[in-house]
Amino acid sequence: MLTSIGRFLRKLRIDEGEILKDMAEKLEVTVSFLSAVENGKKRMPSSWNSRICELYNLTEEQKITFTTAIAETEDAIEMNLIGQNLQNRELAVSFARKFSDIDDDQVEAIKKILLGGKNK
Length: 120
Prior knowledge:
Layout: H1 4-15, H2 20-27, H3 31-38, H4 48-55, H5 60-73, H6 86-98, H7 104-114
Helix pairs in contact: 2-3
């Protein structure tokens, strides 16, 4: 079953005039693994979030679409805290602990901060 991530990756690949092999080489994975991610049989590695944005120089609109696709597809998000200072680590842990208690107004305020004050 094609997931939101799969649709995004496939469209990006086609828009760039690439075949599976081209994108797989850029992402340093096998064609079969990329195909499995596109078809929802494998989970997209979290390292691809920033890597795809950089490799394909995504526009702000594409980044929002990509983020939405990730949110629609993922049941869990893994966060790499390697190299982060104590303040950032504490923020990440605090956010994770309180995540389920955040109301709609707080979600909008946080999104605004994360988007640098830009509205969607």
